[in-house]
Amino acid sequence: MDENEVHCARCGSADTVVQPGADTVKHGRCLRCEKDFQATPCPICGSHRIDGSYRVSGIRFTTLPDTVTCRDCRSEIPARDPGPEGPSER
To answer: What single DSSP character describes residue 50?
Structure first.
């Protein structure tokens, strides 16, 4: 398990491509749900390994929940809108 992997903020998949950058918010594209997302790190431990929809990779939220779980420290953190769904500006 790679502690540096970034999970899709929409579906929870670790099958992602992330643009390099120094910002704490990671901008990426999910290869599983084929959507762009913005991953915000856990405020407790800084991990980008956050559970997605129903904790099942590839299943997208139908309604955004109040909280999601960090897979590293198990903290319940407020869910946020994962950002634009369209193609990345590359």
So the answer is: B
